[in-house]
Each structure stands twice: as C-alpha cells, then as structure tokens.
C-alpha cells in the first residue's frame, strides 16, 4: 500500500480547498458577467425605445405645428388691445389676492401676541376708511364714537417708541403708543 506523508496529505487538502475556492470564484464571476450582459441588453432596449418614442413625437408635433400655422387667423388690433387689458386686469387681481394672503398670514402670525402701534389720530367727524384694507401696518379702530388710526405692528415697546420718535419729527406731535392683543386695545401697563 502506498504511503503518504502527513505533510503531503495536508498540502493535498489545502490544494483541494484552494481549488474549490477558485472554482466558486470563477462561477460567481461568470454569474456576475451574465447579469451584467442581461442588464446591458435591457438598458439598450430601453434606450432604443425612448429614442423611437422621441422621434415619433418630434415628427408628430412638427406636422401639427405646420397645420396650426396654415389655419392661423389674424387677430384684429382692437381684439389684441382687449386681450392686453384683460391680462393687465388679471395681473392686478393676482397681485391683490397675493396681498390679501400676505395680510391673512401676518394676522395669523400675530394672533395672541401683544402688538404695539403708534396712534396718530382719533376723529369723530372724519372717516378715513377709504384706505386700502391691504395695508398691513395701518389700523383703523372704531371705538366710543371715534375713528382711531394707528401705524405699525411692533412686537416690542422699544420699536414702537423709536417709530413714534420719527413720526413726531414728521409733525405728528400728538402721536402716542397703543398696545393691542387680538385686535383689542390694552393699557400699556397691562401689556408690559
């Protein structure tokens, strides 16, 4: 019976293990290569499908465009002016709506907060309600038969005092600071 040395036997087992590992690695590499090939074929098909769709739509659109140009009518000058005016009106309405949304957002942001404003006048006989309701920093308060008008929405008393100083310089000598919470007048002492 042939005799195999123990060291040779270990070497043979190690060679067999490395051979199995190499076989697994070769098989894994073949599988990866097969997957990459399949993926490449799929991507190529998608590319050509996309290209064909693009070409189809380009040629379809250009035919429609030519048809539109053939049947296009000339618009009279009066009609064109009317359309321009409609566009201007729509833009103004859009701007007005944007301002109203901004006002609502400002009112919501100051809800339940103490706000300081500078009152510039209170009139019994005069009503300045012709001002735009879109003006965020102009407030009209009707109270006790008076129409009171205030400017500004300040979160601190110091900001209101600084603004009042500027108004006094402009000639509003009787301007004073008023405080409000949820559109209700507060005494300054209660606000602090």
Q: Describe it for me?
A:
With 192 residues, this protein is of the alpha+beta class. Helix content is 60%, strand content 18%. It contains 4 helices and 5 strands, in the order H-H-E-E-E-H-E-E-H. A 5-stranded antiparallel beta sheet has the order 2-3-1-4-5. The protein is elongated and about 130 Å long. The model has no long low-confidence stretch (mean pLDDT 77).
How would you summarize the topology of this molecule?
Blueprint: H1 6-71, H2 77-109, E1 114-123, E2 138-143, E3 146-154, H3 157-169, E4 176-181, E5 184-186, H4 188-191
Antiparallel strand pairs: 1-3, 1-4, 2-3, 4-5
Task: Please provide a brief summary of the model.
Helices cover about 60% and strands about 20% of the residues. It has helices at about 5-70, 75-110, 155-170, 190, and strands at about 115-125, 140-145, 145-155, 175-180, 185.
Key terms:
single chain, about 190 residues, alpha+beta, five-stranded antiparallel beta sheet, 5 strands, about 20% strand, elongated
Query: How are the strands ordered across the major sheet?
Result: 2-3-1-4-5
Fraction in helix:
55-70%
Radius of gyration: 41 Å
Strand segment count: 5
**Proportion of strand residues:** 15-25%
Q: Separation of termini?
A: 110 Å
Structural class: alpha+beta
- The total of helices stands at 4
Largest sheet features: 5 strands, antiparallel
Order of helices and strands: HHEEEHEEH
Q: Please mark out the parts with pLDDT under 50 across 5 or more consecutive residues, or reply none.
A: none
Q: Outline, from the CA principal axes?
A: elongated
Average the pLDDT over all residues and give the rounded result. 77
